[in-house]
Amino acid sequence: MPHRSYIFPKGLSVSQIQRFIPKKWKQSIKPVDIQDDHPSTSCNAQEPAQGIFTSVEASMIDSLLTSFKEFTSRGNILDAFKTFSLIRLHSSSTSQDLIHPVSSLLSSCTDVKFLAEGQQLHGLIISLGFEQNPILVRKLVTFYSTFSLLVDAHVITENSNILNPLPWNLLISAYVRNGLSQKALSAYKQMVSKGIRPDNFTYPSVLKACGEELDLCCGKEVHKAINAGHTGWSLIVHNALISMYGKCGEVGIARDLFDKMPERDAISWNSMISVYASMDKWNEAFLLFRSMGAEGIELNIIMLNTMAGGYLRTGNYKGALELLYQMRKRGSHLDSVAMLIGLGACSHIGDVKLGKAIHGFAIRSCFSEVDTVKNALITMYARCKDLRNAYLVFQSMEAKSLITWNSIISGCCHMDRSEEASFLLREMLLSGIEPNYVTIASVLPLCARVANLQHGKEFHCYMTRREHFKDYLLLWNALVDMYARSGKVLEARRVFDMLDEKDKMTYTSMIAGYGMKGEGRAALELFKEMNDSHIEPDHITMIAVLSACSHSGLVTQGQLLFEKMRILYGLTPHVEHFACMADLFGRAGLLYKAKEIIRNMPYRPTPAMWATLIGACRIHRNTEIGEWAAEKLLEMKPENPGYYVLIANMYAAAGCWDKLAKVRTFMRDLGVRKAPGCAWVDVGSGFSPFLVDDTSNARTDEIHPLLEGLTLVMKEAGYISSEEFGSDDETSGEFSEEMELASNNRC
Question: DSSP assignment of 172-228, as one string?
């Protein structure tokens, strides 16, 4: 590396310097004839010799400058510094010829990151009195900014007496680039106070700083300065204004500026679409995106990814995949972000075939080794119920992050594989990685679904002992939901009451818990409290409260709430809400109302709805409507054997043996077989399954006498045992599953 002596050489004679000069340079020096026909005095005799020396020196400096330029252009900084030392030696100390060589050396030091050498040049500039030179000031600001020495860059800028805004532009841009937006705004104000007029290269950086700081007042002041200035209209400045107003939440002003632009480029469209996207105004973003395409504006990968991501966020998974397909068809190079979007869409629609195709493309594009892509692959395979491939991808990762563990554990929970989830959770803890709120929020619902309340309580203790979990409402909502789904309403209410903050999900989970226990009035009181807290219910909340009314026989209240959905809350009833109303009327014996609501609703009835009506007809002995509903259900040829069992039970209760025989024949022809009833019982050390007519249990001889005794006690208590080979629990379970599916699909 060059040394300070290259800049300040000492005691070099002309003969020593001439040794550095190549022969071809010497040949370019024209010889001077010192002969003269006229004699002269001794003083006049020295003049030709002095002329020769001056000519040689001038030619040598020209040659050195030529060599210097060649060295700097090639990036040969060491030789450039040596050559500069020779130029420095033979130039006047006040010569302006040194400015351009110093400027070139500063640029070279900036490019190759030579800090010490650049600082030496700065010292030379000061010693030569060039510190106010506009070219060198600009180069020094750029040099120090490159090394993030912004204090030095600021000192140089504010100490210069240059009225040109370029050094300030460089300084402000450097502040913004380094994330120091507040300092950028301070520099802008200092620049204006010194009487320096900003130009169209100043404003974009300043506006970006305003947007980053969300300083709308400053942004509006800058906007006024732009309108009052004489810099003329600038597309770059206008784009920056749109972006600034968008970041500050002023979408209307941003759109007004966009609409009034005399010309637009791709950045203009991207800026406006990004504003809508950042505010979750996806419908407006999609409309503008389509207009952008119609005008023939070239779409870049960033904008295409933004739009595909928007489709993914709004639930239009096929739209996201279609856009990715169009990108690929158009020849656009799909990056890792596009892969993540595609895999996310496949996860939601369960398209494992397309997911595998994206996996193959990722391998060919060398994106399959990116950790985020691998995590997305694990999630995709798990949600598509291909746990084997999910585990293979998981095992292929040497360094497993918390996100990786969460992906595979969440996949197991999604498939109700509690044993595998518990095993992986233990492995994660043994590897030294602590679970976060996402891990626990994935596992808690599984604890409720598989009736493993013990694990849920352990997680409850784990959360309580760690202070940093208290601010994650999602986590506590999952805990309330777990206790509520497990029938532990008192425990759910305790957690509910201890929460300082509650949202619609908290209330919905608690309302659903009361509904499952038949405590409809408590559910309605909680729903009223939710409204009084100015928390708007959504579709899932309405399903929970209508279901609670149904299970408690609160017909009038249920009807009133159903009417309020559209009028008061602005919610259009979905098929699940009509199913709740059919169940409400059916349980109350209002079978004709149940029939009418199914017939008149704007949706195709589901098998579960027909089964609910059939179950109600059986209880209330209405064979007419029951047979009508049974015919509708049989037309759908459902695969669930419980439906056929339900119809058979209804015919058996009515004594319609011919029709019962037809149902059994229908089941046999379709190959439908009823799986034996199964119950899981917590025996303290674990869960044991019990199947109907199962004699394989080692303690069968003890179990059956106990069951017979319990049956006798039930009869004496007034409960009627059913001799049929099925029960209404089948339809109730199916209806509950449908409601749970709606709950799990909460947006």
Answer: HHHHHHTT-HHHHHHHHHHHHHTTPPP-TTTHHHHHHHHHHHT-HHHHHHHHHHHHH
How far is the CA of 286 from the CAs of 257, 300, 306, 323, 676, in angstroms? Answer: 19, 16, 10, 12, 51
DSSP 8-state assignment for residue 469 = G
Picking from 256, 241, 250, 170, the residue whose alpha carbon sits closest to that of residue 210 is 241
Cβ neighbourhood burial of 246 (10 Å; 0-12, 13-18, 19+):
buried
Whether residue 237 contacts residue 226, with contact meaning beta carbons closer than 8 Å, is answered with yes
Q: How far apart are CA 453 and CA 463, in angstroms?
A: 15
Compute the distance between CA of residue 479 and CA of residue 457 in angstroms, rounded to an integer.
9
- The rounded mean pLDDT for the chain is 83
DSSP assigned state of 133: -
- The CA dihedral of 394, 399, 401, 404, to the nearest 10 degrees, is -10
> What span, in angstroms and rounded, lies between the C-alpha atoms of 456 and 92?
85
Q: What are phi and psi of 598, to 5 degrees?
A: -70, -40
Contacts of residue 329, defined as CB under 8 A and 6 or more positions apart, other chains included, come to none
Q: In whole angstroms, give the CA distance from residue 376 to residue 366.
A: 15
Average pLDDT over residues 375-399: 92
Task: Report d(CA 134, CA 388) in Å as an integer.
Answer: 67
3-state DSSP of 7-54: CCCCCCCHHHHHCCCCHHHHHCCCCCCCCCCCCCCHHHHHHHHHHHHH
Residue of 678, 682, 615, 689 lying closest to 648 (CA atoms): 615
CA–CA dist 243, 210 (Å, integer): 10
Is the Cβ–Cβ distance between 90 and 60 less than 8 Å?
yes
Tokens coding 34 = 């010192």
Q: Give residue 452's Cα distance to chain centre.
A: 32
Contact in structure between 245 and 220 (CB atoms under 8 Å): no
Torsions phi, psi for 393 (to 5 deg):
-65, -40
pLDDT one-digit tens code per residue, 549-597? 999 999 999 999 999 998 999 999 999 999 999 999 999 999 999 999 9
Q: Render pLDDT for 313-365 as a digit per residue (tens, 0 to 9).
A: 998 999 999 999 888 888 778 889 999 999 999 999 999 999 999 999 999 98
Name the pLDDT band for 642 (thresholds 50, 70, 90): confident
Note whether 84 and 90 are within 8 A (CB). Answer: no
Return all residues near 271 (Cβ < 8 A) that are at least 6 apart: 239, 242, 243, 246, 254, 258
Beta strand 678-682 with 687-691: parallel, antiparallel or unpaired?
Answer: antiparallel
DSSP state of 679: E
How far, in Å, CA of 621 to CA of 589, rounded?
A: 10
Q: What are the distances in angstroms from CA 707 to CA 693, 712, 720?
A: 12, 9, 15
CA dihedral defined by 399, 403, 408, 411, rounded to 10 degrees? -170
